[in-house]
Structures are given as C-alpha cells and as structure tokens.
Amino acid sequence: MNAIEPKYYSYGSLKVGRGDFDLPPVLIGTIFYQHESIVDRKNNEIFNEQKAKKRI
After folding, report:
1. How many domains does the chain contain in total?
2. Nearest 5 degrees, angle CA 30-CA 53-CA 26?
3. 29 lies in a domain?
C-alpha cells in the first residue's frame, strides 16, 4: 500500500494541508459568486460596498 506524502501550504501564519489529518481541512468562502450584484461584470471597477457590507 502506498502512503500519500503529506503536502502542506502556508498562508501567512496559517498552515493547511493534507496527510494524516494532523491539520484540519479549511473552507474559504467568498461573496463574489457569478452573477452577483455587488460587482458590475461589465465594469470591474464598479463595486457596491453597501451590498457587500450587508452580506458580511
């Protein structure tokens, strides 16, 4: 049986990875989904800050 070699990645002071489950999985969420109204897709410079603050 081949063992999976652990791979770890550092994001600032946070260390995430896979292996023997010694590091927990991480879920990174976003408010920037496709067809969302907080960003004007035709002009990426237009961002609705009020709508974004409501979602956070």
Report:
1. 1
2. 25
3. yes
Is 19 contained in some domain?
Answer: no
The dihedral through the CA atoms of 30, 31, 34, 39 has a sign that is: negative
Is the model's pLDDT at 15 over the cut of 80? no
**Beta bridge partner(s), residue 10:** 15
Q: Is the pLDDT of residue 26 over 70?
A: no
Assigned domain for 36 exists: yes
Q: Is the pLDDT of residue 46 over 60?
A: yes
Handedness of CA 11, 17, 22, 25 (dihedral sign): positive
